[in-house]
Amino acid sequence: MIDAEPDPKSVVREFVARLNTGADAWALLSETAVVTVNGTTPLSGRYPGMTLIRGILADSARNVVASLSVGIDTLIGTGARVAALLSLSVRTVAGTPFNTEGRLCGCVFAVNAGVIDEVILFPDTSLIEIALYGRRYVPDA
Amino acid sequence: MRDISTSGATGDSVAVVQQFFADLRATLTGAEINPYRTMADNVEFVVTGQTPLSGTWHGMRAVLEEFLPAASPLMGRAPGHGLIPLEFIAEGNCVAVLARGRGSNAVGMPYNNSYFLWFEVQDGMITRYIEDFDSSLAWRAIFRCHLE
Description:
heterodimer; A: alpha+beta; Nuclear Transport Factor 2, Chain: A; seven-stranded mixed sheet; 3 helices; globular; B: alpha+beta
């Protein structure tokens, strides 16, 4: 008997659940997964492979993020690619809450054979600069 | 987590969103049509971020009378500008689109952003639109600010 592959949305739900509980979310990413954080923030970029995802993205995030909570508002998709509206709540290492309004951000996941191959996250980049890095936007002279 | 409405077939919802992009393209090449004609009168129109143009507008009238008059003077107009959809992910009445934009600010500085656009469709009209993008880039290019 051949085991059916898990539904891609179920894999995404499990990934988010593990992020929230501190369980091993990384186990649901393939070794060759690519994570892209949209934008121009210090956390933004394309991270191909677990070495870069854990060694650069996750480690850089730990410098500013003390705790992370991810809520799923909506998941759609009938195939391997799943689009999500997520709410990201963060407490910074300085104790400041991030996204107290619970605003939603977009994310796309690609799931293959029960593991996540790709994540493309569209966070609120100006909020990252302001709340996580303590920066401000000043008019050019 | 919200349930997806299955009242609208996925293909129909995608067709409405594709028409929205076609209308935007046509407008940018000089066609005299309303590029927002696929948006419902009661649309919820969300622009994410912390910029002066970020917010939620309830109803097409608010979009036309408040958002667009504030946004339009800040944007440049030139051949080749536009929003190019790259991928559609849809189910029922919801459609997510990954897109790239090519544009400029009011003085011609390039403003090329990447977008996650979320559409909800009811009865052939867009009732919810969320524009998710690099708002930090918008601060610098459109509002001509820098980070300190």
